[in-house]
Amino acid sequence: xxxxxxxxxxxxxxxxxxxxxxxxxxxxxxxxxxxxxxxxxxxxxxxxxxxxxxxxxxxxxxxxxxxxxxxxxxxxxxxxxxxxxxxxxxxxxxxxxxxxxxxxxxxxxxxxxxxxxxxxxxxxxxxxxxxxxxxxxxxxxxxxxxxxxxxxxxxxxxxxx
Length: 161
What we know:
Elements: E1 27-38, H1 41-49, H2 57-70, H3 72-75, E2 84-94, E3 99-110, H4 115-133, E4 141-151, E5 158-159
Antiparallel strand pairs: 1-3, 1-4, 2-3, 4-5
Helix pairs in contact: 2-4
């Protein structure tokens, strides 16, 4: 992957700025991010069985991830508000690793990409899993949040996993 030595969100004086994308063409763009929440086997069993005190953890976290992607521009100061055309958030239990794995794919046709929206969806879904299961276990660990794929835009397609 090519790397820029210039940070696009800083002006010549080093002050924050929102990147001007007005001259760019609208193109189809997609980004996928992943992350995991690690926990004990007992906590994972509560989540899988639907016996968590706060209710259906996986469905609630899925909805939270979708809602977060839609509001990314309100959470990350220099993100552009984007017309999202698709958001898919999935959560899957992995009993071998005692983890809930989260994947978010976000799509748009716009002047800038949706990497931050996909990453935000994963992060908020993970935080929701933690919030809903913390009564059973306070030392769960959220980790491995990363962009795994992006499509579209000037830099083209990138697969990181």
